[in-house]
Design a protein that fits this description.
It is built from four helices and no strands. The chain has 188 residues and is mainly α. The chain has one domain. α1 packs parallel to α3, α1 runs antiparallel to α4 and α3 packs antiparallel against α4. It is elongated. The two termini are 39 Å apart.
Length: 188
């Protein structure tokens, strides 16, 4: 299974094995007094799916915050690019963005993702850390030269790519919300 497509786990059909099948090894079976019994593969698959669903629902608010913050920091960089004024560091939106970034980091930090979605979680945490670097540089007024701006822009492109890769419409984690678009067949 492709690690970047963790959400496909929800579509997979569990593989069932007969009791005693050599393909199924349960490492704790002997110590748990289950000698000779195969684990309930269907129950294990359901547990994994349930954990992934719970993770997807729990991580969505952080994803949404990171997506909005990407747009906010891109807008602030436009100000940095297009203006010689440095007062953008005093804008309320920068403080609000910092607060929202801390909220996203707390949400991600409080999650214990299932092993199969660890890569997804790590990508979101990396995106959060990258945005924290942009926040720090903007707040400190450190984005001045063209090289600084180019580095910040490259970081935002990396964050955008990470969020695009982490998108999953089943959890309403998409870069663009088309649910209300006329072409989606939504009833008026």
């Amino acid at each position: 299974m492709n690690d970047h497509a963790w959400h496909r786990t929800l579509d997979e059909t569990p593989v069932l094995h007969r009791a005693g099948c050599d393909a199924v090894k349960h490492p704790g079976a002997l110590s748990e007094g289950l000698e000779g019994e195969a684990p309930d593969i269907d129950a294990l698959a359901k547990e994994t799916r349930d954990e992934i669903i719970a993770y997807g629902l729990a991580v969505r608010p952080a994803y949404d915050l990171l997506k909005r913050l990407l747009g906010q920091y891109a807008g602030l960089l436009v100000l940095a690019y297009g203006s010689r004024r440095r007062d953008y560091v005093d804008l309320v939106i920068l403080k609000v963005a910092g607060d929202q970034l801390r909220e996203a980091a707390e949400t991600l930090g409080g999650l214990r993702p299932p092993r199969r979605v660890q890569i997804h979680h790590d990508a979101l945490r990396s995106a959060c850390q990258a945005l924290a670097g942009i926040q720090h540089r903007l707040a400190a007024g450190e984005i001045k030269s063209d090289a600084d701006k180019d580095r910040a822009h490259a970081i935002l492109k990396t964050v955008q790519n990470a969020l695009s890769q982490a998108s999953d419409s089943r959890f309403a984690m998409t870069m663009v919300d088309f649910r209300q678009a006329c072409c989606c067949g939504a009833s008026a």
